[in-house]
Amino acid sequence: MKIIDLSGEYTEKMWYYGEPYTPYSVKDLACVDKNGYIAREYTLTAHTGTHIENSAHWSENAQGISETPIEKFAGNARLLYLPFSESKEITVKRLKAAGADGLEKDEICIIRTNWDSFWNKKEYVSESPYITVPAAEYLVSKGIKLVGMDSPMIGDPNDGISSVGADLVLPDYKFSEAGIPIILGLVNLSSLPEKFFFTAFPLKLHNGEGSPCRATAITF
């Protein structure tokens, strides 16, 4: 058995989405010389680094992260390779060419674009690869229980958070409506085979709209 780490490291000055989100920071609360032990305060949002986004991110009436069945966050997974060098737009046509027709009900879909190579670079968020709305609808139709990718956003970064509220339809909404959690900011997907066992468990946050997670792939 081999366990492969798919989470990015949390460090000060790491990437974040900008306002209204806050950057990750660390504050010393106690040190060995003064207190005999070490304690630190970590400041981060539920959407910092490699994290889970669930339906409560988009609806006040949705199920919170602590109420989401834990089985959602582990299972058999299939890797789809759609390199951003070919296109940053992930369409139904590209998904099918990458083997998405083979996705089975309750399988986990992990999308590798190689965008993790831009982790902590200035364009990591603003120019990231994304899934189109029809592509999201197609993945939902396959009956998957979880989707993840090595991009910090599932939708087009040009739509922007500030655009929400008009007539905009985001791919996030399609997954949210279907009760499919999203894992964003995965790394190291180049180390994965086509099929593996995936885990990414969230913190048990009451009414949480998301959570940092430690994502792994297990191969046998």
TrEMBL record:
- Record-linked Pfam families: Cyclase
Molecular function as annotated in GO: arylformamidase activity
GO terms in the biological process aspect are: L-tryptophan catabolic process to kynurenine
User: Record's superkingdom?
Assistant: Bacteria
Gene3D superfamilies under this entry? Putative cyclase (3.50.30.50)
Q: What is this protein called?
A: Cyclase family protein
